[in-house]
Amino acid sequence: MLMRYVRRAALLVPILAIAVLILGPIALMWVVSFWKKVGLTMVPDFVWQSYERFFQGVRLQVFFRSLWVALSSMCLMLLIAYPVAYVIERKVPLSKVRGMLFLFSVPFLVNYIVRTFSWSTILSRNGWVNKALIDLGLIQAPLDWLLYSNFSVYLGLIAAYMPFMIFPIWLSLSSIDREMEHASWLLGEPPLATFWRVTLPLSLPGVFAAAIFGFVGAFGEVAVSTILGGTGYQLLGNSIDSAMNVIDYPLAAAMSTVTIALMLLLLIVWFRVFDLRLFLGRLITN
């Protein structure tokens, strides 16, 4: 009996920590989003002023632009992450899989801002890319569109968040029972048809989880859009940062609340559509 209470107390500690350190600030942000901004300060109230300013102003256009950039970059990341995860799971020897996965985590050992600034150096007029193209005789003058453009922003987003997407896809692929694929082959299906009808559908929980990782990161991005897109390139994260800089905390809280609500909706869809056991596979059953 005593051990039961001890186990419950041990579980209660992390739950309370999550409630205080994560859910607490989110709840406070939600409350502040209804406060009224008066001059350089704000007063407690229950008004929809901040939400009206968000949904009726130019920030709504920034919201839709951020939504499009997040969705399109997420699709590009999936097109890269899935083949990489598939090759690691199916073609790389089991003894070398951990080493391959570790290589994709190495970039995260370097500060995120430093990695983003390094791309601005590489893509600049005097950067390595332009110098290499000129030395090869492919161009006569440096390409200006490599930096401070949609190209550089998408490249920065893919480099920043695509490695995150490899791990859930690999985990989902590794949990697929190979007997199902063997059965498909025995029934006369060629490898490509087996992939489309068996492997890909069974790996969708991991694909959707990876899509959430990529979408969430790209949708709330600030550094990549500022450093690689330039000062005029605005995404939702930049709008929230701008509101914070002018001490408009209710507006920043309202935009952040809408963003978190969208992320929560994606998580709810994932949990309702996919069984967690399909994602974790044998890891959760053993």
Spatial order of the strands forming the largest sheet: 1-2
CATH-assigned fold name: MetI-like fold
CATH class: Mainly Alpha
Number of domain units? 1
Describe this entry's structure for a reader.
The protein has 286 residues and is mainly α. It has one domain (58-285): MetI-like (MetI-like fold). It is 75% helix and 2% strand. It contains 15 helices and two strands. It has helices at residues 2-32, 49-56, 58-90, 94-105, 112-123, 128-135, 150-174, 178-186, 191-202, 204-219, 223-227, 236-245, 249-273, 276-280, 282-285, and strands at 36-38, 41-43. It has a two-stranded antiparallel sheet with strand order 1-2. A hairpin with a 2-residue loop joins strand 1 and strand 2. Helix 3 (58-90) runs antiparallel to helix 10 (204-219). The longest helix is centred in the first third of the chain and has 33 residues, at 58-90. The radius of gyration is 23 Å and the shape is globular. The model is unreliable at 282-286 (pLDDT under 50).
Summarize the structure.
With 286 residues, this protein is mainly α.
Characteristics:
single chain; 286 residues; mainly alpha; 15 helices; 75% helix; disordered C terminus
Question: How are the secondary structure elements laid out?
Answer:
Elements: H1 2-32, E1 36-38, E2 41-43, H2 49-56, H3 58-90, H4 94-105, H5 112-123, H6 128-135, H7 150-174, H8 178-186, H9 191-202, H10 204-219, H11 223-227, H12 236-245, H13 249-273, H14 276-280, H15 282-285
Antiparallel strand pairs: 1-2
Helix pairs in contact: 1-13, 2-13, 3-7, 3-10, 7-10, 8-9, 10-13, 12-13
